[in-house]
Amino acid sequence: MDTQEKKTVQEAEAPVVNTAVDYDKVDPNPKRERPRGREYLKARSQMPEEQLFSFAEYNAQEAEKIGYSNYSYWKSVWANFLKKKPAVIMSIMFLLLFIFTFVASAIGKYDIHMAPDPINRMYISPNSEYWFGTNAIGQDYWAQVWYATRASILLAVLVSLGQISLGVIIGLIWGYVRKLDRFFTELYNLIDNVPTIIYMTLIALMVGKTMLTMGIAMVAFGWLATARNVRNLVFMYRDREYNLASRCLGTRLGRILFRNIFPYLVSVIILRLALAIPTTIAYEVTLTYLGLMDIMVPSLGNLLSAARAVFPRATYTLWFPAAIVSIITITFYLVGNAFSDACDPRNHV
After folding, report:
1. Would 195 be classed as within a structural domain?
2. Which residues are CB-neighbours of 337 under 8 A, at least 6 positions away?
3. What whole-number distance in Å separates Cα of residue 231 and Cα of residue 295?
4. 245-261 as b/e, with b when 16 or more CB fall inside 10 Å?
5. pLDDT 10s digits, 272-299
6. Rounded Cα gap, residues 313 and 95, in angstroms
């Protein structure tokens, strides 16, 4: 065997030694220049598989955390609402205003039921004794204004909740149950084509002008717009795939309406509720102006109706209730729009 053949056999029998350098580990000689580009790729390709790869350990608890989300719909709604600074400020002002209606009677000098004295105390301008002046029969206007504000806010909130609740329920059934569409459409046309003030006048003359009676009447005829709006929206979601699947599985009608469809209507419902409160107060003012509300119970409508006749003589009787009505109207307009935008999932990040 010649020298060349011996050399070849020795190289074949010699053990393979990996001369590649693991440059990903800490280099004991940091001053040495590492290879770059093709040299680095070549060095990596010569490394054994055990050195290049390692198996990832499985941990059940860590795996659960990967699929867990901290997202909460109502937390996101609240966070988006707080970004609307004007709406937040006005909502705080309204809350303080409502709380003050209870405090005002305690800090006032005179009670709302102070005995009338039209001769000595009629239309006294605001002063240190009578902070808001007096009315036509000599009663303290401070007590009258804050009592009327509390009564009007409570009436508006209760009536608006009744209108929206009734409108949402009827709208959901109207839009989802095809057999009832003709019935509710005819009922809507029957009520909507006659001016509401005619119904209110008939009820006031036949039943009474009390605040409770007129409040129930406003609920009975105020659900139309909400029901119509909800009905049109339900048409959009009624035949979605998940609702078809729910019907195939035998899910009850009420569950489909309030679990599958109702969440998509939250932003619209909140907006209509927020706008219904100032609208109800304005409607109460109109009814009082027309003499269809009981004038014995102080309300913002009663105060504004009484102030119009004496405005040139006692302007303060108009400014105070008008300012409160303006604050309430602006507040719910801003809060309603801001909260409606916050409830829209498309605005959540």
Report:
1. yes
2. 87, 271, 274
3. 38
4. ebeeeeeeeeebbeebb
5. 888 888 888 888 888 887 888 877 778 8
6. 33
**Cα angle 256-257-260, degrees, rounded to a multiple of 5:** 60
**Coil, strand or helix at 150:** helix
Q: Let me know if residue 46 belongs to a domain.
A: no
- For 240, the token pair is 């979605």
State how far Cα 72 lies from the chain centre.
Answer: 15
Domain that holds residue 307: 76-347
B/e letters for 79-107, b = 16+ CB within 10 Å, e = fewer, are: ebbeebeebeebbeebeebeeebeebbee
- Measured in whole angstroms, the distance separating CA 243 from the mean position of its chain's CA atoms is 25
Please indicate, yes or no, if residue 17 is contained in any of the structural domains.
Answer: no
Give the pTM. Answer: 0.71
Distance between CA atoms of 100 and 93, rounded to whole angstroms? Answer: 10
Alpha carbon distances (Å) from 322 to 30, 249, 303, 317, 326: 80, 56, 9, 9, 6
Bridge partners, residue 134, by sequence: 140
Distance CA 332, CA 162 (A): 17
> What does the block give as tokens for 141?
């206007």
Rounded to a whole number of angstroms, the CA Rg of the chain reads: 37
Say how far apart CA 115 and CA 303 lie, in whole Å. Answer: 18
Per-residue pLDDT tens digits for 198-245: 888 888 888 888 888 888 999 988 888 899 989 988 888 888 888 888
Residue 128 to residue 133: CA distance in whole angstroms: 9
Q: What CATH number is attached to the domain comprising 83?
A: 1.10.3720.10
